[in-house]
Amino acid sequence: MEPAGAYGAGKAGSLAFDPVAFFTHPRTILRLLSWVFSIVVFSCIVNEGYINIGSERLLCIFNNNADACNFGVTIGVACFLGSICFMILDVYFPTISSVRDRRRAVLLDLVFSGLASFLWFVGFCFLANQWQATSQDELPLAQGSDAARATIAFCFFSILTWAVLTLSALRRFLTGSNTNLFTWQHLEPAPCNARATPYPIANGATIVTTNPYQAPPFTETLDPQKLTQQRPMAPAF
């Protein structure tokens, strides 16, 4: 039998959606950055990544290698769509009551983020290598050079954001019993005006403490009459 609080299932639907808390969460910020970086990568390649020199045929600015441009556009579009899907999943994640479905969602996030970070690393190395091999004669008037440098730079930035998202998903998956790690809600702090918690002791007296987590005392008030009755009597000679 699965525990009630596993993967945050015990808090499903307990809190209303808070847009401020969601969009200020570090994971949401990383997803937005990854979304923007992917837009920059594939838009730079689509808009200025192809040139034509003396013919109607378009050539890729990365050493005339069409595979380099196709790879950059493909991974950019895939991560653009993936960022949107996982942001939507983060919104509806607290409403999922099934522990198994939550585990699958976090596992999917872990696999996709890890794969995306690996592909961005491959793309960064591939595009940087092809740009280094590109001669100045192939790019008259340095056409598309700024777009190529921007593409390589934002590929590197994407490696960082997706790597952090991978570590975050791995931490959430390994500590699934912690409900706060699987939702965008933060645990509410204890109120400052917490009521004092009394602990009863012997003879009707009480000890009041302001710490609600303090353990009750193990001592009790001794009755003087009991001490007199239990005092040993000296033997008579």
UniProtKB/TrEMBL annotation:
InterPro entries: Marvel, Synaptogyrin
UniProt name for this protein: Synaptogyrin
Keyword Membrane attached: yes
Family the UniProt entry places it in: Belongs to the synaptogyrin family.
Spans traversing the lipid bilayer: 32-51, 71-93, 105-131, 151-170
GO cellular component term, pick one: synaptic vesicle membrane
Keywords annotated in UniProt: Membrane, Transmembrane, Transmembrane helix
Taxonomic superkingdom: Eukaryota
Originating organism: Seriola lalandi dorsalis
Keyword Repeat: no
Predominant localisation class: membrane
Limits of the MARVEL domain: 22-174
Localization per Swiss-Prot or TrEMBL: Membrane
Membrane topology field: Multi-pass membrane protein
